[in-house]
């Protein structure tokens, strides 16, 4: 029965996609009409079996059935809000029940944003469209309307657009003067009352078209030091330009011979295999990447040529990687003898030493930095130790995250440990181009700190994330630190390229347990930050 339901939903999806966008996280402004919906299959397609639709909202970790009121109305596959209020924020789901089993059809996270009373829009509730000058374009109004006859009014920078009442605002030829913030307002009549919903789009018209680029392999020929028996993973990434070339191919050769695919090789077999070909988009740039996995390096591999080849538009680029043995020095005799005596007489010493190094690795490194007064920031030309990226929405349960980013984080790192942070709302003067400012300040920073939560992805935050990923994975200029501020069980809302980052660069915030300045959270964060002598700006702060 479950398969039947999902198959029918798939069939109906194309007919209702415009009306019911399948989004897992939705932002809406308070005081506006809004609805949740899903593609509804026809009753007769369920083999004449009766079913009931139930809407639920999560409350204290439990699913609670939603009861209709004059404001919240259930209409089959629609849950309507007349209008939405701040208290409506939360997790929603809808189920089908045939009397025997419940089938969860879809889930949403609804974020109701506070209305900006001094403006016709909320900057946290807009999308950005970047277009080139000289081209045609259309801005589309929201689909949140009841009737095609609903009144529609367009505004530019909160000033009414004369005689523009259509669902699409058309530009035959874009110019720089067309840049601005456009808001369409839909007036809806319901049960004798007037409601409205708005949709805001920031249009950026760029006069300079990205210059033509030639596809190339990122990086040059290289020689990697390794050891016999060690696993090595060779990475090859090709830059395709500002659009994805479908005919592009990227593959490895071992002495002019194609390696086997990793999926066809048993795990226990010693061999070299080629991973799956992947496509990556970072901002407006497109890349392809492929890994070559050497499960155990042999002496023969030291004499092989590992060649990566990128081909597209009759252009071929190559990159050759060679392996060489790492130079190792023998231990002095007295150290070796002492080690042997300790190993024979006190076997537990070795176990204890390993345990201490693993468990207290962070403490040992921080202690070593403090004693040696190590400073990794000298002469690197960077102005900031870290750029802080966080969710900009001002919703009630996200205020804690905002306070953490603007107060707690700089209070500890700057006043107690001498770091210099770049926080956009605090350190960037208004009036500049946001996109350019973000790119410039990330480039001036040694680290990119991303305060990550389920609601992280907003228009500006996703650009900060993509810019940081580009510098970490491709340019190798900036290292990323992820702070998991709220527990996350599903990372599907994040860019796929984020999975290429090492998991050890994730630090988890545990609320009151992490508040003290000497807590494990702050130690782990300092461990990932560049080494820098502690220069407190004020008295030491200890939370109680």
Average pLDDT, all residues: 78
> How many independent structural domains?
5
What would the CATH topology of the largest domain be? Answer: Rossmann fold
Biggest beta sheet attributes: 6 strands, mixed
Structure description:
By secondary structure, the protein is α/β, with parallel strands linked by helices. The chain folds into 5 domains: 2-113, Sandwich (Immunoglobulin-like), CATH 2.60.40; 127-206, Immunoglobulin-like (Sandwich); 216-325, Immunoglobulin-like (Sandwich); 329-358, no CATH class; 362-528, Toll/interleukin-1 receptor homology (TIR) domain (Rossmann fold, 3-Layer(aba) Sandwich). 20% of the residues lie in helices and 34% in strands. It contains 9 helices and 30 strands. It has helices at 2-16, 333-345, 347-359, 361-372, 399-415, 424-427, 434-443, 459-475, 520-528, and strands spanning 25-29, 34-37, 52-59, 62-65, 72-75, 78-81, 90-97, 102-113, 127-132, 137-140, 151-156, 159-160, 168-171, 180-190, 193-206, 216-217, 222-226, 232-241, 249-254, 260-261, 272-274, 278-282, 285-294, 306-312, 315-325, 384-389, 421-423, 445-452, 479-484, 506-508. Strands 16, 18, 20, 21, 22 and 23 form a 6-stranded mixed beta sheet that branches. Strands 1-8-7-3-4 form a 5-stranded mixed beta sheet, with no helix packed on it. Strands 9-15-14-11-12 form a 5-stranded mixed beta sheet, with no helix packed on it. A hairpin with a 2-residue loop joins strand 14 and strand 15 (193-206). Helix 7 runs parallel beside helix 8. The two termini are 55 Å apart. Residues 1-18, 43-48, 393-397 and 537-544 have low confidence and may be disordered.
């Amino acid at each position: 029965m479950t398969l039947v339901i999902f198959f029918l939903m798939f069939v109906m999806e194309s007919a209702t996609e415009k009306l019911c966008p399948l989004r897992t996280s939705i932002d809406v402004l308070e005081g506006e009409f809004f609805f949740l919906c899903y593609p509804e299959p026809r009753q007769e397609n369920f083999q004449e079996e009766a079913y009931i639709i139930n809407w639920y909202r999560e409350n204290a970790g439990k699913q609670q059935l939603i009861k209709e009121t004059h404001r919240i109305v259930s209409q089959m596959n629609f849950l309507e809000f007349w209008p939405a209020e701040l208290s409506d924020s939360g997790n929603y789901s809808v189920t089908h029940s045939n009397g025997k089993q419940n089938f969860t059809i879809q889930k949403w996270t609804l974020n109701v944003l506070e209305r900006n009373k001094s403006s016709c829009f909320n900057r946290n509730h807009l999308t950005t469209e970047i277009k080139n000058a000289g081209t045609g374009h259309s801005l589309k109004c929201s689909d949140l309307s009841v009737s095609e006859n609903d009144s529609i009014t367009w505004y530019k920078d909160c000033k009414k657009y004369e005689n523009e009442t259509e669902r699409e605002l058309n530009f035959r030829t874009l110019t720089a003067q067309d840049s601005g913030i456009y808001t369409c307002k839909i007036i809806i009549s319901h049960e004798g009352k007037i409601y409205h919903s708005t949709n805001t789009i920031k249009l950026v018209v760029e006069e300079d078209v990205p210059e033509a680029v030639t596809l190339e392999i990122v990086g040059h020929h290289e020689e990697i030091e390794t050891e016999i028996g060690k696993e090595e993973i060779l990475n090859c990434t090709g830059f395709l330009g500002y659009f994805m070339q479908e005919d592009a191919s990227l593959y490895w050769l071992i002495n002019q011979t194609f390696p086997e695919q990793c999926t066809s090789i048993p795990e226990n077999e010693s061999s070299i295999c080629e991973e799956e070909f992947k496509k990556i988009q970072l901002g407006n740039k497109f890349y392809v990447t492929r890994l070559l996995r050497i499960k155990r390096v042999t002496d023969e591999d030291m004499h092989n040529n590992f060649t990566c080849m990128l081909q597209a538009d009759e252009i071929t680029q190559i990159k050759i990687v060679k392996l060489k043995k790492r130079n190792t020095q023998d231990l002095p005799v007295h150290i070796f003898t002492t080690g042997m005596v300790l190993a024979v007489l006190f076997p537990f010493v070795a176990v204890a030493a390993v345990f201490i190094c693993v468990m207290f690795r962070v403490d040992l490194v921080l202690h070593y930095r403090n004693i040696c007064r190590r400073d990794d920031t000298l002469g690197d030309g960077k102005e900031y130790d870290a750029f802080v990226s966080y969710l900009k929405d001002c919703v009630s349960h996200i205020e804690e995250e905002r306070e953490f980013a603007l107060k707690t984080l700089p209070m500890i790192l700057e006043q107690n440990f001498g770091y210099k942070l770049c926080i956009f709302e605090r350190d960037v003067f208004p009036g500049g181009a946001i996109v350019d400012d973000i790119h410039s300040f990330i480039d001036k920073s040694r680290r990119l700190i991303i305060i990550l939560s389920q609601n992280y992805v907003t228009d500006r935050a996703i650009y900060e994330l993509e810019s940081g990923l580009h510098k970490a994975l491709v340019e190798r200029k900036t290292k990323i630190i992820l702070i998991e501020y709220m527990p996350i069980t599903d990372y599907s809302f994040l860019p796929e390229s984020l999975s290429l980052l090492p998991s050890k660069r994730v630090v988890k915030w545990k609320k009151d347990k992490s508040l003290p300045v000497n807590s494990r959270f702050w130690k782990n964060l300092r461990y990932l930050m560049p080494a820098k002598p502690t220069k407190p700006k004020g008295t030491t702060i200890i939370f109680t």
